[in-house]
């Protein structure tokens, strides 16, 4: 995170040099915003994973193999784009930025595919009888 803050400062060097205000408050503000964004991102990632896990809890309590098979079935029903993003995000622990770079997409496109993929997973799990 610190590297990104200083990379932003280096990228904005010409603009900052023309600004008569001190640079330190700007750096602290950028660092604080990055920290808040990182906390939100990790919280959303944790919440998303907990949601999928909670949705399959009923299946797990009755039979792990059936739950795993149901999860494979519903994952197979996602579009290729959504499935790839969901798997890279939840099972491989990749950040949206990493996924975007790996798939040559924008972060916004990756986030949208992830959100839509989770919504589809929830609905498909409901149809399978594994979610409330």
Report on this model:
The chain is mainly α. It is 84% helix and 0% strand. Helix 1 packs across helix 3 and helix 5 packs across helix 8. The longest helix has 33 residues, at 23-55. The mean pLDDT is 81.
What can be said about this structure in brief?
With 132 residues, the chain is mostly helical.
CATH class of the largest domain: Mainly Alpha
What number of domains?
Answer: 2
Radius of gyration: 20 Å
The parts where pLDDT drops under 50 for at least 5 residues are none
Distinctive features:
132 residues, mainly alpha, Arc Repressor Mutant, subunit A, 84% helix
Secondary-structure blueprint:
Elements: H1 2-11, H2 13-18, H3 23-55, H4 57-62, H5 64-77, H6 80-91, H7 96-103, H8 107-128
Helix pairs in contact: 1-3, 5-8, 6-8, 7-8
């Amino acid at each position: 995170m610190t590297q990104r803050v200083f990379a932003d400062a280096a990228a904005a060097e010409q603009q900052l040099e023309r600004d008569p205000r001190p640079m330190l408050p700007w750096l602290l503000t950028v660092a604080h915003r990055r920290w808040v964004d990182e906390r939100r991102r990790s919280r959303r990632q944790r919440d998303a994973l907990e949601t999928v896990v909670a949705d399959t809890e009923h299946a797990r309590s009755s039979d792990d193999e059936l739950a795993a098979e149901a999860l494979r079935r519903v994952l197979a029903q996602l579009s290729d784009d959504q499935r790839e993003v969901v798997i890279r995000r939840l099972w491989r622990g990749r950040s949206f930025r990493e996924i975007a770079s790996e798939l040559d997409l924008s972060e916004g496109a990756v986030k949208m595919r992830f959100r839509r993929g989770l919504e589809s997973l929830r609905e498909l799990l409901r149809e399978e009888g594994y979610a409330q």
